[in-house]
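Notebook, bench 3.
Goal today: get a predicted structure for PilZ domain-containing protein from Magnetospirillum gryphiswaldense so we can plan the truncation constructs. The sequence was checked against the plasmid map this morning, with no discrepancies at the termini. Length recorded as 126 residues. Pasting the sequence as submitted so the record is complete.
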Amino acid sequence: MGSVGSISKNNGAMSERRRYTRYAGDGLMVWVDGRIYPAIDVSLGGVRLSGVQPVKRGAVVSLKLIPCHGEVMMLGLAAIAQGQVLAVGPSGTRLAFVSPRYSLAKTVVRHTRTQHLDGVFSQPVG
């Protein structure tokens, strides 16, 4: 259910080739191997975490997406998933969800609805 997207030129115009729209990760934390990282962005296909995690490209890791409201982690609304590491670098760690469950999609959709922004998270592909 994950897809790595890119932006390409189409007759001088930029076109988005991502399968899923990305949204700001504000208010979403991700547990990976006993450590919690803030999400930079999230979509139904995957998540990008802040910083460089000690994982290698291609590795499949267990994740828990935890919504936060203010300073409170909403553990009862957390979703468990598997993520394959697509890239690790200065722009963060990108993971594609592997065999996502309904609870994961529900958590991501709920998160996108609570965003304070009126649209998608616009950012360059990294």
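Strands lie at 7-10, 13-16, 23-24, 28-32, 35-42, 46-49, 60-69, 72-73, 79-89, 92-98. Residues 1-15, 118-126 have pLDDT under 50 and may be disordered.
Flagging this for group meeting.
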